[in-house]
Amino acid sequence: MVEDASAVLVVEPDPAIRRLITLTFASAVLRVANLAPEESVEGAIAGARASAIVVNVGDAGEGGIALLRELQAATAAKILALTASTSGASVHDCLRHGAFDVLLMPFDPDDLELAVQLALGFEAPFAAGPPPATAHPLALTEWRILRLLGAAQGEPVLHRELLGKLWGQAFRDDRDLLQYWLDRLGKRVPLVDYHGVGCAWQGGIE
To answer: Mean pLDDT, to the nearest integer, of 114-125?
Structure first.
């Protein structure tokens, strides 16, 4: 369990979205700080003593990726990227350049709150019993993959089904994005591959 009042730094230029993100964490044991327009990323991180950063990278173009790189270079805090992109390649770029996890916009406030809490090591409800014990924080995407596989009770789940349930029908053919997550998760979880078209999880996590 993390200490009380863990800080979340919000990097969001739109005041309305920034207000929504702040309200999202109103019921959580978290302090929220915002990056002021005139403030440097390094100064904001130092001032907030942030354990997690929520950053809007827009459509994950060059500017958004550059911001992720800047944040990654300045802090060891977990970075949660918000993006309006519906491209699996763009989401993958965010992950390769510093994002701990990526949420699509418009985001579900409950998902964002859970994503930050998981990144900070809070416990979260899990299907059919307690959450799996792990020495390392789970990303929300990893947690959702385990819930989907756990619901299948050891039976294989097709990759296309996972993609559709995780990110929507527009992502059903983005195998590279899913493979990134399966490779990352597979370092701690005994996933069973089914000829590259499906996978299963029979329990257990490191």
So the answer is: 81
Question: What pLDDT shows up at residue 6?
Answer: 75
Q: Which of 140, 197, 133, 108 is nearest to 148 (CA)?
A: 140
Which has the closest alpha carbon to 36: 11, 19, 16, 68? 11
Nearest-angstrom CA–CA distance, 136 and 33: 25
The pLDDT tens digits for 6-31 are 789 999 989 999 999 988 887 666 77
**Per-residue pLDDT tens over the stretch 141-198:** 999 999 999 999 899 999 999 999 999 988 988 999 999 999 999 988 889 999 999 9
Structural domain boundaries, residue 39: 6-119
Q: Are the C-beta atoms of 140 and 101 separated by less than 8 Å?
A: yes
* 94 Cβ contact partners less than 8 Å away, ≥ 6 residues apart: 57, 60, 64, 65, 68, 81, 83, 102
> Is residue 130 one of the residues assigned to a domain?
no
- Residues 6+ away with beta carbon under 8 Å from 41: 11, 35, 67, 70, 71, 74
Q: Which strands, in side-by-side order, build the sheet including 198-201?
A: 157-158, 198-201, 191-194
The token pair at 167 is 């990110």
Q: Are residues 184 and 150 in the same domain?
A: yes
Q: What is the largest CA-CA distance in the chain?
A: 53
